[in-house]
Design a protein that fits this description.
The complex is a heterodimer of chains A (about 325) and B (about 325). With about 325 residues, chain A is mainly α. Helices cover about 75% and strands about 0% of the residues of chain A. Chain A has a domain at about 110-330: Orthogonal Bundle (MetI-like fold). Chain A contains 12 helices and no strands. The longest helix of chain A is centred in the middle third of the chain and has 38 residues, at about 190-230. The N and C termini of chain A lie close together (about 5 Å). Chain B has a domain at about 40-60 and about 90-95 and about 175-320: Rossmann fold, CATH 3.40.50. Chain B is about 30% helix and about 25% strand. Chain B is globular and about 65 Å long. Classes of the chains: A mainly alpha (about 325), B alpha/beta (about 325).
């Protein structure tokens, strides 16, 4: 297993380098100029100076190599400097946003907590709702509960979050007044009251996203359970006199979880990508919202960096999914 | 085998129906039989004749719905186990009735160790601690002839060959010293040499442990080798039942005769074609009102189409459900 992990990690390096090049070139193809947000009253020579100052006039390959160096050396070094007070980075140029002229990673550091609290909680809640629904739906296939679960999944699948989100706002904020319509990112949790307030403002965006997540995962869980329910070893477990509880929650579930855990692990990078629509709808200042802003402003370094971070996460979680698969299923051995 | 002993298992008028969209399938139709202590009862018949379904009905192993046991009694040591609660039934399954299934490749749970799968019934039915169960599980593996038993307990099913897995299944079935062992085509999925080893093992264990065995198979050669008594099933009914020698020398039912004819012979002149029974066993969409075998029977006459034959004695411990009598004239 260890050699497998190391081999995969080594293989990830050329993969990621290739992905970064493709991202860089593709994003660079996009039309527009970094000056599009600058007022037209600024004279052309000043504009030219600004472009030169940002390095935007350099050929794309030069910018790419520079960006690589910044991403893999300067940024980690700055991070370590921040932690231990060293000066590894030596004041070298970090990746700067064309839009705000501030380091992209500072912006990410500010926004990631919002995204993780809201989108991460929603994912966790979605999984926790989905697994029991999937298990019980399969155990009582075609029962009233199963039909209701299917309907729930259909709705979760087919109704977009901008609709469910708006609906929830109308019902719970406007009509009932239970929760605020907007997420206040300046709120800091210091005592019980602010904690309750935080929970209240999280409720609607989390619920919106959790419904969408739970829909898909509950279907995976259900079909995986159904696949296993009819297997011979289940009959063996019953013939041994095991209780229904043991049969379903031990023998069937352990086998059914294998593919579902993989699906859940592969869904985690999407959390970091944020939920663009939901974040915008509720005013959560997360990564998704930042990405949209950067695209509008033609802020290439931010878009490239964010896109590449998602790529890294996807590669990493693919590896984690593979390792989990090997841990859960004794038939799979990588060495 | 003691002939007069009380049967450990006495099945009376068992009826099982599958409710399907196309209608009710009558899979088991008033099956009655008994099993004496230490006896090995062979059950033979074509695929779809209701052998397995009958045995699974006994201990509630059929999924319900669609299956439904509609009538009958299953007396295990005098107690009707069709009437007991599902929890009580669980304490009978695996403890007093052991089961071995056809396909050892899929009958063990792939994600648990062999040891934990043998220990499960030990801990549940005999209340052993983990340590005690481990010791007993190793003894069981040893008993079924798996070398290096203690070490193999921590192995997973995929690390065992087919024959070894079937030995593990037998160890699980025997774990709690059952009174009755039901073996549902336990050697069908194995190759011939392994099959011989498993047969030898069962013969040996039976002598050592003295439980009664029901052996389901469609291999008459196997039956001739190990059974005391044979029951022939067709369309969910028992059509003939006799001590093994009697059945092979004096088969009465045309179906039994036809089955025996299908065994290829090694000695004597070689025939060009394998003997077969033409046609398919019926799917019973209604309770039988006529002889179910009549459409395929060379001896069928008009009474066979009007009236379902009941079992009648034709010799010592030998009965047959057929209107036709060899040598008699039928109109």
């Amino acid at each position: 297993m260890l050699t497998f992990t190391l081999r995969r990690l080594l293989l990830a390096i050329p993969t990621l380098l290739f992905i970064s090049l493709v991202i860089f070139l593709l994003v660079d193809l996009a039309p527009g100029s970094p000056m599009s947000e600058i007022p037209l009253t600024v004279p052309p020579e000043v504009r030219q100076k600004m472009i030169e100052a940002m390095g935007a006039d350099q050929p794309v390959l030069v910018r790419y190599v520079l960006w690589l160096r910044q991403f893999f050396w300067v940024e980690p070094a700055t991070l370590i400097d921040g932690w231990f007070g060293t000066s590894l980075a030596g004041g070298e140029q970090r990746i700067l946003s064309w839009q705000t002229r501030s380091p992209v990673f500072t912006m990410i550091g500010q926004r990631i907590p919002q995204t993780i609290t809201v989108v991460g909680t929603a994912y966790l809640l979605g999984v926790m709702i989905a697994l029991p629904i999937g298990i019980y739906s399969a155990y009582r296939q075609y029962s009233l509960f199963d039909q209701a679960g299917t309907l729930f999944a259909m709705i979760g699948f087919s109704v977009p979050t901008f609709f469910t989100g708006t609906l929830l706002i109308i019902v719970f904020s406007v009509w009932l007044g239970w929760f605020p319509t907007k997420y206040d990112t300046t709120l800091s949790v210091t005592d019980w009251n602010s904690f309750v307030q935080q929970i209240r403002q999280m409720a609607l965006p989390v619920l919106t996203l959790a419904l969408a997540n739970a829909a898909a995962i509950s279907r995976y869980m259900r079909s995986s359970m159904l696949d296993n329910m009819g297997q011979d070893y289940v009959r063996t477990a019953r013939a041994k006199g095991m209780s229904e509880r043991t049969v379903v929650l031990k023998h069937v579930l352990r086998n059914s979880l294998i593919p579902v855990v993989t699906v859940i692990a592969l869904g985690i990078p999407a959390i970091f990508g944020g939920a663009i629509i939901t974040e915008n709808l509720f005013g959560v200042n997360g990564i998704g919202a930042a990405l949209i802003l950067a695209i509008h402003a033609n802020d290439l370094p931010t878009v490239q960096t964010l896109a590449f971070i998602f790529a890294v996460l996807i590669v990493v979680f693919n590896l984690i999914a593979d390792i989990l698969y090997g841990l859960l299923d004794p038939r799979i051995r990588y060495d | 085998m003691p002939d007069g002993a009380e049967p450990v298992l006495d099945v009376r008028g068992l009826k099982t129906v599958f409710r399907t969209r196309e209608g009710n399938v009558h899979a088991v139709n008033s099956v009655s039989f008994h099993l004496r202590p230490g006896e090995l009862l062979g059950v033979v018949g074509e695929s779809g004749s209701g052998k397995s379904v009958t045995m699974m009905s006994l201990i509630g192993l059929l999924p319900s719905p669609p299956a439904e046991v509609q009538a009958g009694q299953v007396l295990l040591d005098g107690r009707d186990i069709l009437q007991v609660s599902s929890t009580q039934l669980q304490s009978i399954r695996g403890a007093r009735i052991g089961f071995i299934f056809q396909d050892p490749m899929t009958s063990l749970n792939p994600v648990f160790t062999v040891g934990s799968q043998i220990m499960e019934p030990l801990r549940k039915h005999m209340g052993l601690t983990k340590a005690q169960a481990q010791v007993r599980a190793a003894e069981l593996l040893d008993l079924v002839g798996i070398p290096d038993a203690k070490k193999r307990l921590s192995g997973y099913p995929h690390q065992f060959s087919g024959g070894m897995r079937q030995r593990v299944m037998i160890a699980i079935a025997l774990a709690c010293d059952p009174r009755v062992l039901i073996a549902d085509e336990p050697t069908t999925a194995l190759d011939v040499t392994i099959q011989a080893q498993i047969l030898e093992l069962v013969r040996e264990l039976r002598q050592k442990l003295g439980m009664a065995i029901i052996w389901i198979t469609h291999d008459l050669g196997v039956i001739a080798g190990i059974a005391d008594r044979v029951m022939v099933m067709y369309a969910g009914q028992v059509v003939e039942q006799a001590p093994v020698k009697e059945l092979f020398t004096r088969p009465q039912h045309p179906y039994t005769r036809a089955l025996l004819k299908t065994i290829p012979h090694l000695a004597g002149p070689r025939s060009d074609r394998l003997q077969v029974i033409e046609g398919q066993p019926p799917i019973m969409m209604a309770a039988p009102a006529a002889c179910a075998f009549a459409p395929r029977c060379a001896h069928a006459f008009d009474r066979c189409l009007r009236e379902n034959p009941q079992r009648r004695p034709v010799g010592q411990g030998h009965d047959v459900a057929c209107h036709w009598e060899a040598g008699a004239a039928h109109a």
